[in-house]
C-alpha cells in the first residue's frame, strides 16, 4: 500500500474519532429530551399529529409503530413512481415506472438499502427523487437510529415495561440530527460543484463530432433485433451532449449521512455532478461513518459507562483498518492480462475508476460504503480485481456491524456482543451477563434468529437464482465472476447495503421481486427481534458486578467480540466465497 | 392498531413535507445565492453558448486533441444523461479485447511512441464521464498533439502543466489534467 493510502486512512480515522464524542453526546441529549429548543418545536407538532409524548410504548407497540410508518413510506414511494408522468417537476417527461421495478425501489428505499435496478437520471422525475426517494433517505435512517436507541434503553433501564415512544424518537432524530447536518453538508457539496437546480437537462455543443452505432427502434420504441437476437444498429453522429440536471446536492447529503447510498445518477458517487472533487469524496466518506461511530458513544453515555461504547468502537475500528488495507492493497495490483498487453502496471487496476480518486480513494470508499451498509459507490466494484472485489462482499457478509448502517450497525454489533458474552459464559460455566443484565434462553433464541436471518436470505436466494434461467439470464461476466455477481446482489439486498456488481441486469421481474423480498425481511426480520430483546432486557432486574463478571470494556472483550463476528461471518460464507472471487483469483493468475 | 394510525399518517405527512419539500427548496435557494455557477453545472460558456461543463468529460478521437478516458456509456460515449461504467470483470475477454483495441488506436495515431501505456488511457472510467486523465496520460500524448498541430512539444507541455492540478489540499485524491479545458486552450492557441 502506498504512503498516500496510509496517510489518507490515518487522516480519515483521526478526523472521524474527533467527531465521536461531541456528536455522540449531542445525540444522547436529543434522544433523552434534553435539547433546549425541543419544546417549542415539538408541542405543536405532537398536538397536530395526536401524539402523546409522555405515553411510552412496550416493545410490541413500538415495533408495530415502526412497521406501520415504514409501510406507509413504501406505499408512497411506489405510488409516486407509478404516477410520476402525471405529476409536476418532470422536465424530461419520464413515464411511470414499471410495477416490478417500482415495487423493488419502494422496498429498497424504505429499508435503507437503496439497491437500484434503474438508472436515476434516465428514469426518475425530480418530484420522485425528492418527495419519494430523499424523504425515505431521512425516514429509513431515522428508523434505524430509533431502534438502536430503544435497544440501548433496554440495557439502561431495569424492571421497566416500556422502551420509549416511537413517534417522539422518530421526530427528534429527523429534525435535530439528520436535517441540520444534511443542510450543512449539502451547501458544502454545492460549493465544490455538486449541482442543485430544477432546470431541464442542459444541451451543450461539444468540441468534436461523436460517431457511434445507434440501436434501431421500431414504431413501438422497441429495439430491432436480427435473427441471432443481436440488436441492429445504424451509424449516427452527434455534436450535442445532454447534461443531466436536478436537485442533487440536497439528496447527496442525506444519502451519505443516512447510510442510504441511492444515487441521483446511475453512476452514483462516481458521477462528477455527485462527487466532483477528492475533497467532496472525503466528506462523503466521513458522512457515512459519522453517525454510526457517534452512536457508540451515545450508547456508552446512555448506559452510564462510556468505556462500554469505546470498546465497541475499538472492535469496529480494528476490523475497519484491516479490511481497508486489504481493499487498497488488492486494487493497487494491476490486471496481469492487461500488463501483458503493455499497459503500465504502476497505476494499479483502473478499469471502472475515476482519475481524480485513483486507487486509494476508491479502495477506501469501497470499504467504508460496504461496511456501513451505505452502498454508494465511487468506483465500479464489478471491475475490481478478484480479491479487491472479495473485500466489499465480505464487508457486507460480516452482517453490516462494523460501523454498519445508522443505528443498524450498532444494534447488530450489540447482538454480536450478547453472543460473545454467551460464548464466554459457556467457557467458564456461568450464566452470561452484559451490562448488568442476565442473558437467558429467551434472549439467546432471539439473538440466533437476528444473526441467522440474513445469511439464510443470501444463501437461499443465491442458490435459487443460479438454478433458474431467469436468474442466470442477468449475468454479465462469464465464469466464476458471474456467480459472484448474483452472490453480491443477494448479499447486498439482504444486508440492506445497496451497492452492486452492477453488470448484473437486475431490472427484471425475477430479480426485482426476489431482491425486494430479501431486502424487506433482511431489514424487519432483524428489527423486530432486536426490539423484542430490548423489551425483555428492560423488564429485567439489574444485577451487581461480581468477581465472576466478564468485564466488557477491556482488550479481552474487544478480541472476543471481533472473533465472534469473524467466526460467524466466515462459517456462513466461506464456501460461497470460494466458488466466486477465490476461484476467479486463481484463474486470473494462472492465465497469464 | 387504531391508536397508532393517526399519529403514523400525520407524522409521515409532516416529516415528508419538511424533508421532501422545505429541505430541498431551502438548499436550492442557498445554493442559487451562494454558488450559482456550481449549482447550475459548472458550465463553460463561449460566445454566449454552452460548450460543455468543467466537470463532465467529452469524447475525443481526433489525434490533434488530447484524448480522455474511454467511456462505456451507451449508445454513444460520454452520454451525460445515462452515466455508466463498463462493469467488465478482470477475466472478461471483452475487457481484454477492448483494451487491445484502444492500444491499437493509440499506436496507430502515434506509431513512434515508446512510452509505457498509461492505465487510465485504456481503461474505462466509472461514470463514463470522467473529465480528467492522469499527468502520465497527458505526457504520453504531448508529442502526437504537438506534431499534429505543428507546435513545439515544449509549448504543449507547458500548456499541460498549466492545466494540471495536484492532490487537493496536498492529501486528497490524485493529480489530474482536465481534458476538455486543455483542448479548448489548445484551440485558442491559434
TrEMBL record, chain A:
InterPro entries xref list: KdpA
Domain of life: Bacteria
Membrane association type: Multi-pass membrane protein
Pfam families assigned to the protein according to its UniProt record, in alphabetical order: KdpA
Places the protein is found: Cell membrane
Molecular function (Gene Ontology), one example: potassium ion binding
Keyword terms, alphabetized: Cell membrane, Ion transport, Membrane, Potassium, Potassium transport, Transmembrane, Transmembrane helix, Transport
GO CC terms, sorted: plasma membrane
Keyword Cell membrane: yes
Main function: Part of the high-affinity ATP-driven potassium transport (or Kdp) system, which catalyzes the hydrolysis of ATP coupled with the electrogenic transport of potassium into the cytoplasm. This subunit binds the extracellular potassium ions and delivers the ions to the membrane domain of KdpB through an intramembrane tunnel.
HAMAP family (UniProt xref): KdpA (MF_00275)
UniProt subunit comment: The system is composed of three essential subunits: KdpA, KdpB and KdpC.
NCBIfam families in UniProt: kdpA
Protein known as: Potassium-transporting ATPase potassium-binding subunit
Species for this entry: Dechloromonas denitrificans
Gene: kdpA
From TrEMBL, chain B:
Keywords: ATP-binding, Cell membrane, Ion transport, Membrane, Nucleotide-binding, Potassium, Potassium transport, Transmembrane, Transmembrane helix, Transport
Pfam family, one: KdpC
One cellular component term from this protein's GO annotations in UniProt: plasma membrane
InterPro entries, alphabetized: KdpC (IPR003820)
Localization (cell): Cell membrane
Topological relation to the membrane, as annotated: Single-pass membrane protein
Example of a GO MF term: P-type potassium transmembrane transporter activity
Recorded superkingdom: Bacteria
Similarity annotation: Belongs to the KdpC family.
Subunit (UniProt): The system is composed of three essential subunits: KdpA, KdpB and KdpC.
General function of this protein: Part of the high-affinity ATP-driven potassium transport (or Kdp) system, which catalyzes the hydrolysis of ATP coupled with the electrogenic transport of potassium into the cytoplasm. This subunit acts as a catalytic chaperone that increases the ATP-binding affinity of the ATP-hydrolyzing subunit KdpB by the formation of a transient KdpB/KdpC/ATP ternary complex.
Name of the molecule in the record: Potassium-transporting ATPase KdpC subunit
Source organism of this protein record: Dechloromonas denitrificans
Gene: kdpC
